[in-house]
Amino acid sequence: MDQRDLVRCIRKYRTYDNELKALNTQTQKLRENKKVVEIEMGDILRRPTFAHIHKLDIADDGSYIKIQRPEAWNKPWNLSVRDMQSLIEGYFKTGVVPTAEGCVKYITENRKHDLVAKEFSFTRVLPVDDNNGDESGEVVAHRTA
């Protein structure tokens, strides 16, 4: 009986694993297709005719796409251990009296240029009926192109 239970579980596991692999493959393909469309949207929105547009309404579902233009927004902060080590070493080589605040300021100033986005960012904002106490009334799905 125990062995049959194990075999049954293994078969279920295999079935779920196969389904997840298929869904992940499909999801990856959809992401690639979406990326191609975002690049195309960015190329169109670079035209002078569309320079004033920062929001695209999607009439049939009430959502909209918020557009952030290149050089007008900062990418999320990320710092590898290697980069952090290098920046901290650079800070201590400046010869200033080391302080936590000074170190953070030094790192921030040295990373600022890397954080300015060179690409468009498209954020789809979805309306919600029940916001569970959240006053914004919006759900955000974010993507950069």
Describe this structure in words.
This protein is of the alpha+beta class and 145 residues long. The protein has one domain. It is 50% helix and 17% strand. It has three helices and four strands. The protein has a four-stranded antiparallel β-sheet, with no helix packed on it. α2 crosses α3. The termini are far apart.
Condensed summary:
This protein has 145 residues and is of the alpha+beta class.
Q: Percent range for helical residues? A: 40-55%
Assembly state:
single chain
Please summarize the sheet with the most strands.
4 strands, antiparallel
Beta-strand residue percentage: 15-25%
Order of helices and strands: HEEHHEE
How many strand segments? 4
Categorize the overall geometry: flat
Strand order of the largest sheet: 1-2-3-4
Number of helices: 3
Whole-angstrom Rg: 24 Å
Classify the secondary structure makeup into a structural class. Answer: alpha+beta
Which characteristics define this entry?
single chain; 145 residues; alpha+beta; four-stranded antiparallel sheet; 17% strand
Layout: helices, strands, pairs:
Elements: H1 2-45, E1 55-58, E2 63-68, H2 81-93, H3 100-115, E3 121-127, E4 138-144
Antiparallel strand pairs: 1-2, 2-3, 3-4
Helix pairs in contact: 2-3
